[in-house]
Amino acid sequence: MNRTDATSPRPAAVVLGRHTDGGCVLVLCDGAGEELGREVCVPDDLAAAVARWERTSPLWVVRTLRDAYPPLLAAGIRLRRAHDLLLCHAILRDTASLAEPLPASRRWIRAASAEPRPQALFEVDAGAAPDDEIDELLAEWARQRAALRRAPDARLDLLCRAESTGALVAEEMTAAGLPWDVAVHEGILEGALGPRPLTGARPAKMAQLAARVGEQLGERDVPIDSPPRLLRSLHRAGILVESTSRWELAEQEHPAVAPLLEYKKLARLHTANGWTWLREWVRDGRFRPIYLTGGVVTGRWASSGGGALQIPRSLRPAVRADAGWRFVLADVAQLEPRVLAAMSQDRAMADAARGADLYEGVVRSGAVSTRSEAKYAVLGAMYGATTGESGRLMPRLRKVFPRAMGLVDRAARTGEEGGVVSTLLGRSSPPPDGAWRDAQSRASDPAAGGVEERRARSRARDRGRFTRNFVVQGTAAEWSLLWLAEIRHRLSALPAAVSPAPASGPVFAGGAHLAFFLHDEVIVHCPAEQADAAAEAVQAAAVAATARLFPGFDIDIPLDLRIADDAGKDA
DNA sequence: CGTTGCAGCGCG
DNA sequence: AAAGCGCGCTGCAACG
To answer: Which residue ranges form the domains of chain A, and what is each CATH number?
Structure first.
């Protein structure tokens, strides 16, 4: 059996795959991907083998970290570097920055769910027999390295490395979990909803509000949970709204409206994050969502399980650090417009972005006269507003920030014409689907009617708004990915805590670790004595991410950073 | 009966 | 107040 002594190969990379007989195989490779040797083991011995090779800090090449990494973490092993073939395949297959992107293959499409995949579905056009998974991995890795060599610059490589490191972070965060105080959560629920009801029953405060709505509408047992039936009840009472949505109801001056809106708020809390949610998703003081890295076409992460990306701000106080531990809470104010300023190299917008409040900077630039105008104008620029106040302000932004506005306007035009747009590092938008192209070609037919033409134009504008936003949201996601990777790197280099209070799982008991990530904010959980150093690491990571994504361009991306025992203090 | 689509609302 | 992007989850209603 191989040992990491002077006579053993010192692999730059190890490809990890399944073997014919259900065992595991590690292929040791040099920096060029040339095979140096192999090691075969039974699954029970895999963790030990990985731990041994990890001492030499190789690049671990796997089909997907989503499957490969959790069992290793459970065995107490953290990997420093990895290459996720599935995630990188998607990037290199769709990117427009390569003349010859990776050929599409059904073997390299991620399954929709986290459940084990039925193999048969994926073997249809497989180039290799399932027995030879390791050969398939080696071949795919070779294709990906070749694709990256053909790239005009290093940006795609940076994206693939960041994407893979993001996947490491995601699995580590699931394993560590977000510390969650059940008693605090229950206190919030009881304060808002009343005592915990018997299963199936409506909480007391919701029942009271429903009764008041009924009195005001002059109707017993209003079908308050059924939008279409509630709408008819509202109409009978003379409240002429077109839907039961919040903003429309808020415009009505009827005594039934206030209790109805309050009911909706409580119902949302009860159904989405009530006692049922607590029982199902919080175990041993930890909320463990599954992060789906690259789950959104723009490169943002999606999640599954417990609605991790939608935890209401009112529940943030339930996010509580372990005894003797602290949180470092950090978020970026107005990340997307700052990223737009930098990626378009718009000096005027970057100057407006200097400091904590970009919108005040936009006012100082003279483009608009109030902060709230600035906010809606900037959001409208990125989302493609055409009507209302926001749409009206667009020409003024174009005049003051021509480069930034030119970038998003061009992205919108490309999308309307059916083209593909890309982020700064080279993640590309999906091409239009068949239905979209059919609608456009039907409308360009001389015999097309006005209805078809209007419909096609409307679909084209929809797509233009999507591609307009794609370049900004996607590049912002790249900044966040680099930020996460830099945080992880710096946290692992922190001096060990002298006497950390016991916390977390076995892997993370020793010190600071990322515990939560949501688009532009992170939560680090750390022993109290590491809190200052961890906060500095998070700050330094942001500076490093900015320098890597926008080399040579001066852009301010400031953090709102604080150390606290819970996540609710300034919510 | 189970599945699918939609409305509504939470997050960025 | 402003309605323009991206998600996930819930419950209801319509559908097969």
So the answer is: 13-176 (3.30.420), 182-278 (1.20.1060.10), 288-334+477-564 (3.30.70.370), 336-474 (1.10.150)
